[in-house]
Amino acid sequence: MMYSEKVLDHFTNPRNVGELPDANGVGEVGNAKCGDIMRMYLKIEGDVITDVKFKTFGCGAAIATSSMATEMVKGRTIQEALQLSNKAVMEALDGLPPVKVHCSVLAEQAVRAALADYYRRQGIDPEPIVGKIQEPDHDHGEGDSCPSCG
Ligand code: FES
Predict the structure, then answer these.
(1) How confident is the model over 91-102, as pLDDT tens digits?
(2) Residue 134 falls inside a structural domain
(3) In a 3-state reduction of DSSP, which class is residue 17?
(4) pTM listed for this prediction
(5) Residue 16 maps to a domain
C-alpha cells in the first residue's frame, strides 16, 4: 500500500492532537467495520473556529486525515467547516489508497458531529444545518436488544 509523503508526515507528526477543555463543540464518530473512533473538539467564538483538537483511536490514515481536517477548519467559519468534504481532505493529503477512503469520511463526519454538538448546546436542532451524522459504533453483542439499533 502506497501512502503519499503528506499522509506519512501527518501520521508521524499529527497536528492539533489532544483535548480542548474549553471546547464548546465535541463530536465523536466511529466506523462500525474497522472499529476506529475519532473525537473532535472545537472552540467556536462568534462563528469562527478559533481552536481545534482531536483524538483518534484508529489507523494511520484516520490519524492523518483527522490531523489534516483540523488544519483545514482552524480559523475558518462554521459555514466553511460545513463545506469540508472528505474529498477535499484527501486531496490536501495528495490522495489515499482506495481501501482507506472511509478513513477520510470519518474525519469529515467528526467535524460535522462537533458542529452538531455546538448547535445542540444552544438548543438548536443541528440536523437541518449539519445533516445526518454517522453514529459512533457502540458495544454490545449481536443478539442483545438495543434501543438505538432497534
Ligand atoms: Fe478504519 Fe482507517 S481503517 S478509519
Answers:
(1) 999 999 999 999
(2) no
(3) strand
(4) 0.88
(5) yes
